[in-house]
Amino acid sequence: MRTDWQGTYLDGRTAARQPATVRLMREGLELTTAAGGTRLWRYRELRQTQGSYAGEEVRLERGGELPETLLIPDPAFLQSLHEAAPDVGLRFHDPRRRSARLRWTIVAAGGVLAVTVAIYLWGIPLVAALVTPHVPVAWEEALGRSAVSYLAPPERRCGDPALGAAMDAIVARLLAAGPPSPYTMRVHVAARHGQRVHHRPCRAATW
Prior knowledge:
The chain is α+β, with helices and mostly antiparallel strands. It has helices spanning 77-84, 96-131, 137-151, 161-176; strands spanning 4-10, 18-24, 28-33, 38-42, 46-50, 58-62, 68-72. β1 (4-10) and β2 form a beta hairpin.
């Protein structure tokens, strides 16, 4: 385990940056600055504000509004810190947990994807099968009339009574051959998109 590390010390009062040597102790960090002063920073007095992500510089602070700051450029410092002082727990980030966190993130993403696929393949059809029998016929017919109004607006519909009667007769024969239905079936003959029906009889061959 490596115990001595190089870093940068800021006293919180000035912008001066001082080279510093940091020694990992069981109860804290022994900090020696370039000026020759040595002090002990106890772990319980420190907070980590940077260095939780791969490749990021480690930043430790001590104090209140204008804290003393220690910068360690090597992120491996944190792993050695946990080896030197295993009792610090979650106070400082442990890089050894990073790979486990990545694995759990992948597992969670896979779980979300699996649940989404299951809902799409089985959940939605199941809910539709349960809800459909309870939807009022009047509501469904109102929805159908809205769709017809959009797909075949009145200005595009054929108004030839003879053609309408023929279509109604065909629909009646088709419905008579099947089981009883609570729905009212209507057929509208409409011009192709972009065409408009003029005020003259419609020919079946036109539609």
